[in-house]
Amino acid sequence: MTDAPAPVEVPLRKKWYRTKTFNFAIGLVVTFGCLWWTYSIIAEGRPASEVFSEIGGAFAKANYWTLLPIWFLLFVFYWIKAWRWRMLLAPLGDFRTSTLFPPVMIGFAFNNVLPAHLGEFVRVFVFSRQQRQPFTPVLTSVILERVLDIIAILGLLMLGLLFVPDLKDQEDIQTSMFVATGVVSVALLGAAAYLLWTKPFVALFEWCLKWVPLVPASIKQKLAEMLEQGASGLSSLKSGRLLAGLLFTSFLQWAINGVVISLALRSFGFDMSLWVCCIVIGVTAFGVTVPSTPGYFGVIQFCFLLVLQFFTDDKDGVTAASIYYHMAQWIPVTALGLFYFFRTGLHVADVEEAKQEVAVSEDVSPTAVVTDA
User: Fold this and answer.
1) Other residues' Cβ atoms within 10 Å of the Cβ of residue 95
2) Spatial separation of the C-alpha atoms in residues 284 and 286, rounded to whole Å
3) What is the pLDDT of residue 258?
4) Is residue 281 part of a domain?
5) Most-buried pick from 4, 78, 142, 282 (CB within 10 A)?
6) Could you tell me if residue 238 is inside a domain?
C-alpha cells in the first residue's frame, strides 16, 4: 500500500456507479415489497389506523427489562464472531480477539447503513489497512465465515423442523426446506473438494468456464486466480482440532441469536420454544441475503411473520416483536461500529475509493467482491 493507486478510468467508474444505483433500486423494491406484504397480512381488511393502534398497544404492554440480557447476549455473539475470525486468520498471524472485535463491529455497522451487504468489504478494508495484511487472504477468511454460518444455520433450522410438533403436518414446508438443504449441501461438498483437492478442482473449474458463453475471458481468468489465491486461506481448515473449534463457535453464536429472538418474543407475551426460534433464525438469516435497503428493514418483519403465523394468530404482536428485536440490535451495533470506525481515523471516502478500485481492477460488480450468506 505504499504506491499510489492508479487512477480509475472514467467509463469503468460510470459502470460502477450504474451498478451501485441498480442494486440500490432493487433493494428498495424488495424492502417495500416485504413491507407491503407484511402489512397486507396483518391488516386483514382493517383500516391502517387500527393496525398501527394495535401495534402501538403491543409496544405499550411490552416488557423492556429484556433489553439488558439481549444487549449482553449481543456482545457475547459478536465477541464469539471475532474469536472465530481469529482462528480463521491464524495462517496470517496471531491476532488478539480484542483487536478483531472493532473491525467486526465496523463491518456490521456498515451493513446497517450501506446497501448490498458492503459492510463486509469495509471490515476487510479496515483490518487490512490497520494490520498491513494482503486483501485477498483476509477476504477469503470472511468467505469461509459465510460457509460456516450456512452450516450452523442449516443445522439449527433442521433441528427446529424436526422438534417442532406443529410443523409435522406442514409437509410442503418441510419438503422445501429439505430440498434447499440438499442444494446447499452439494455446494458445501464442492467447497470440501476445493479444500482437499485444490489443483484438480481449479483445473476442472477452469475447464468448465471455457464452456460458459457470454463471460469475458478477463473475468474467467480473475475467477481462477481468486480460487488459487484463496486456497492458502482454506489450509487452516485442514486441522481437525481447528475445524472443530470453528464449528463449535459457529453453532454457539447462532444458538445465542436464537435465545435473543426468544427474549424479544417473550417481551411481547409470546412463549415460543427455542426450536421455533431456530426456524426463525434460518428463515431470517437467508432472507437478509436478498438485496434490500440498508439495515434489512421490512425483510426481518416479513421473515418473522412468515414463520410465526403458524404458531399464533396475534400478527400485530408478532410484527411489534420483530421491530423490537430488529431495533434492539440495529441501534447499539450501528452506534458502536461507527464509534470504532471514527476512532480509526479513516473516512467513508477512503472506503468508497478502495471499493471502486477493487471492483474496477476485478472488472466485476462491487457486490461480487464479498460473498455474503
Assistant:
1) 17
2) 5
3) 93
4) yes
5) 282
6) no
